[in-house]
Write a structure and sequence with these properties.
The protein is an alpha/beta fold. It has one domain: 3-Layer(aba) Sandwich (Rossmann fold). Helix content is 36%, strand content 20%. It is built from five helices and six strands, in the order E-H-E-H-E-H-E-H-E-E-H. Strands 3-2-4-1-5-6 form a six-stranded mixed β-sheet. Strand 2, helix 2 and strand 3 form a beta-alpha-beta unit. Helix 1 packs across helix 5 and helix 3 packs across helix 4. The longest helix is centred in the N-terminal third of the chain and has 16 residues. It is globular and about 40 Å long. The termini are far apart.
């Protein structure tokens, strides 16, 4: 069983302000809230996949730090770029998983971009393109195989909702 957590990177500076498009303070907060929410749910990703773009890498690093996994568990590749092909991204993940010890449930996180995260969700579930991804939001998909329409959406949580859950008693 695979649980795949799709995350759109946090808010980034516009290119005319910061050509590398690093995260804004708001973007860091969005990702921090989501990462802390994932940690409260006792989810520890076995691997984090990200594009090589600075805003996605920074988002992946925040998740890694907050949930307490080694930065060596972050895999960067251009296959996860904003215009990346979802089938290529899933093939890339399958290749990496073939090197892993087989566990009962693998938890994988993709810190990526729109529209690629929506396209990956769409390939796996058939409805990802209709999901209104927001910066820092997390979509959880469960699947036996990383194949077309083999997954089901378990939940979708916004950073603000993680914050509300954190303060609820």
């Amino acid at each position: 069983m695979i649980r795949l957590y799709l995350v759109q990177h946090g808010e980034a500076h516009p290119e005319n302000v910061d050509p590398a498009r690093s995260l804004t303070d708001t973007g860091r907060l969005q990702i921090m809230r989501s990462a802390e929410g994932i940690k409260r749910l006792q989810i520890v990703p076995d691997m984090i996949f990200t594009s090589t773009k600075k805003r996605a890498v920074q988002s992946a690093e925040i998740f890694s730090e907050v949930v307490g996994i080694r930065s060596s568990s972050i895999v960067q590749d251009d296959v996860f770029k904003p215009s990346g092909d979802p089938e290529s991204a899933l093939r890339f993940i399958k290749e990496k998983l073939s090197q892993c010890v087989n566990e009962s449930t693998l938890h994988l996180l993709i810190a990526g971009h729109m529209p690629s995260v929506a396209k990956i969700a769409n390939v796996l579930t058939g409805c990802g393109e209709s999901i209104a991804f927001k910066n820092g939001a997390v979509l959880c998909i469960e699947t036996e195989l990383l194949e077309q329409r083999a997954g089901k959406i378990l939940w979708y949580i916004l950073p603000e909702q993680f914050e509300i859950l954190a303060t609820a008693r």
